[in-house]
Design goal:
With 397 residues, the protein is of the alpha/beta class. Helices cover 40% and strands 14% of the residues. The structure holds pyridoxal-5'-phosphate (PLP). The site of pyridoxal-5'-phosphate (PLP) has 13 residues, from α5.
Length: 397
């Protein structure tokens, strides 16, 4: 198999552990192990204490699958297959569903594996472009027109990486309907589910709305335990899970034994775990409202309706790739330029799931101020036209 580099992951491979502040991470501040163990009930405490480090059941620990299923309305344990993160779920599912001659439609910009694996499997991929001018919304009519007789898979991700877009219920239902009519599977990437800004906007899980929908979940994002590398696929179409299980024999075979028990502890305490994540994200979002209010001409965004990331735009006078490279040098703060999504719009991904966000934002603002000053100086030297100036904070014009 030949597959293009995963641009975002290559960028993180270079920077993630080399910077002081990750202002573009998509996960929520990771749970300390000791705090998680303190949440164990008698049964899971015993499972942890007596754990033997052998192979595990390839479909996932039965108690873990039962706990995952309990979060859905219509699932039972056999509707769930545990994977190594969400990433293995994407890789295996797309490989069993698609091959040469098949067609997939995937929202874009987006998490690259959602479309790149399909391409590598030999399928033709149509990107369904989300536009800032439309609030990054899915265009139902355009999507309907993108369906072909060969469409086997439609992929959506809500809340969305990188924009924080969350469709309203009627849009979601229309997408489900389009997939039914096409006879296609719908992959509903729900890894940021439970982080809706307004909980009333939470969409139903894909598995609960139709048999041909596959829900993708993970411990990494809303559950704040990315290091467990535990994800899952959930669907009432068990033939799909059976095929994915056969593919998994060639990737990881089974999950890490300690991770399964830790994930079980986390899921049984989901109310506590999710309340913590929501509190972090909502507090940080309020702090970001302040940032955008202080730099109205320089930074703008469609405020996310869910998730832990957004996709702001930088004023066109400031090249966002250059700015991000200088920012990390000057302040040790990492942003993720939109070019890593192949997006040309001078956007960057900002993450608001980490507790060091205030320090990271302070570094970002120091650098914004520096750039503004240097452009002012340059502008004065060159007697530049106002076009070369950055319009930024209140009173700056
Ligand atoms: C939309 C989306 N899907 C899937 C994944 C993969 O999750 P994991 O890294 O936990 O496997 C990510 C990770 O960033 C993501 O943003």
């Amino acid at each position: 198999m030949r597959i293009a580099d995963f641009e975002l992951e290559r960028y993180f491979a270079r920077w993630e552990f080399a910077v002081r502040h990750l202002l573009c991470a998509s996960d929520v501040e990771a749970w300390p192990m000791a705090d998680l163990l303190a949440l164990a009930d008698d049964e899971t405490a015993a499972l942890w204490r007596d754990l033997r480090l052998g192979y595990t059941e390839s479909t996932g620990h039965p108690l873990l699958r039962r706990e995952i299923a309990a979060a859905y309305e219509t699932a039972d344990a056999d509707d769930v297959l545990v994977t190594a993160g969400a990433e293995e779920g994407i890789f295996a599912l797309v490989n069993v569903l698609l091959g040469p001659g098949d067609h997939a439609i995937v929202t874009w910009p987006g998490y690259q594996s959602l479309y790149e694996v399909a391409r590598a499997a030999g399928a033709e991929v149509t990107l369904h472009e989300l536009r800032e001018a439309d609030g990054w919304a899915i265009d139902v009519d355009a999507l309907r027109h993108q369906v072909t007789p060969r469409t086997r898979l439609i992929v959506i991700n809500a809340p969305h990486n990188p924009t924080g877009m969350l469709p309203d219920r009627s849009t979601f239902e229309a997408v489900v309907e389009i997939a039914v009519e096409a006879g296609a599977t719908l992959l509903s990437d729900e890894v940021y589910r439970y982080l809706e800004v307004d909980e009333a906007d939470r969409l139903p899980a894909g598995i609960d709305v139709a048999r041909h929908v596959v829900s993708l979940g993970v411990m990494s994002k809303s559950f704040a335990m990315a290091g467990l590398r535990i994800g899952w696929l959930a669907t009432r179409d068990r033939s799909i899970l059976d095929r994915v299980a056969r593919m998994k024999d060639y990737t990881t075979i089974c999950s890490s034994a300690p991770s399964e028990i830790l994930a079980l502890i986390g899921l049984r305490a989901r109310d506590v775990v999710l309340a913590r994540s929501r509190a972090i994200v909502l507090e940080n979002l309020a702090a970001l409202d302040g940032l955008f209010a202080r730099w109205p001409g320089t930074l703008s965004w469609v405020r996310p309706r869910g998730g832990s990331i957004g996709f702001p735009r930088m004023h066109p006078d400031v090249d966002v790739d250059r700015f991000s490279a200088d920012l990390v040098e000057a302040e040790g703060v990492l942003l993720l330029p939109g070019s890593r999504f192949g997006h040309p719009g001078n956007h960057f991904r900002i993450g608001f799931g980490r507790t060091d966000l205030p320090e990271a934002v302070a570094g970002l603002e120091r650098h914004l101020a520096r750039v503004r000053t240097s452009r002012r100086t340059l502008g004065a030297e060159l007697s530049a036209s106002p076009v070369n100036m950055i319009r930024s904070s209140p009173g700056d014009d």
